[in-house]
Amino acid sequence: MTKKQSLQIFSLDNNTLTFHDEPGFQFAARWPYLPVHFNEGILLAQVLPLVFRKNAQGTLELGIMLTRKGKHVIQQGRWPVNIKPTLLAMYPFTWVNVSDNKAQLAYHSDALHFKGPGQKLVTSKKKPTQKLRSFLTQLKKVASAFNNTRRLLQELDQLDILSENGNYLILNKQPEPAVLDKLSPALKKLLQAHLNSLQHSIQDQPQQKAAAPAHASNQQVNEAVKAEAKTAGKEKTKKKKDSAKKKTKASDGDKAGKEKKKAKSSSERKKIKKPVKPTSVEGIIKQICDTYSVDAEALKGRKRSSNLTEARTSLAKESQQADMLEAMAEWLERSPNTLISWLR
Q1: Strand ranges (DSSP E) for 55-183?
Q2: Segments making up each domain of the chain, as ranges
Q3: Residues 164-181, mean pLDDT to the nearest whole number
Q4: What would the pLDDT profile of 266-295 be if each residue is shown by its tens digit?
Q5: How large is the angle between the packed helices 306-321 and 281-292, nearest 10 degrees?
Q6: Which of 291, 288, 290 is nearest to 339 (CA)?
Q7: What is the DSSP letter of 331?
Q8: pTM value?
Q9: Is there a contact between 196 and 45 (Cβ–Cβ < 8 Å)?
């Protein structure tokens, strides 16, 4: 995120605070970075640079750069990726870990969401409104995901294999075999996603303007035609033209036939070409999101609609066919039996 913002722990005594949703994500248009947890980081790494850095407490954290090849990804308030990062979706609400590492709801008091008219978050009896309850419900699940990620990053930090790169820490190369042997499967997966994602941080190389192809000038063409006309009689010229027309017509006919046959052959190949099946949990999720125009968080959430029901059924079916039902259930934070029930 950006400069240090005014973060306050939320209290039910604050029954004068009003809140409104901001249209789009223009408030985050110039944020350079956003912390993420393991599950969403692996998915977002397919399109954005996934990096590490030390936070204010000196703890290693995982995050995505909100620039891709040097350009800010949020344009005109739109988030361009199917997967919406948790902290972006929850903003201006977040949490702080208090005693016993227990998460407590907090908020950025200087956010635009609290300026101007809005709805109250606490009733006159100091009870949370429905809007506030939705944030409190989400908080427990989200804080758990970030705590799991923090434990994984502690393992990484102890290996001391990251290098400074500006404001961030990155892995410059694949770890040595001796180091790889020490990595847990989850950490191996995270580091591979991180390495692959670094391609998104490379600036686009300016394309060189292609040199114009050499053409004969109109004057050169005219002079050639005149020279030919002078050396040949009118009759001879007429015969040549007639002959040339016949050849051109025949050549064009042959060419058209070949092009038609080629197009037909190409069309037939396209018809019999089978779609490539995704080979990972992330691939299945992306395919379902693209097919049903939903985002990953909606699939993972508890909301229901006919479109989401169809999407979840397809998600379970694809996962079962790819023998990834348990892995998908873990990502969805549900049991494998729940996914099986979606197939009935």
Answers
A1: 60-65, 67-68, 71-72, 93-97, 103-108, 119-120, 163-165, 168-170
A2: 7-201, 281-342
A3: 87
A4: 554 444 344 566 778 888 888 888 888 888
A5: 150
A6: 288
A7: H
A8: 0.57
A9: yes
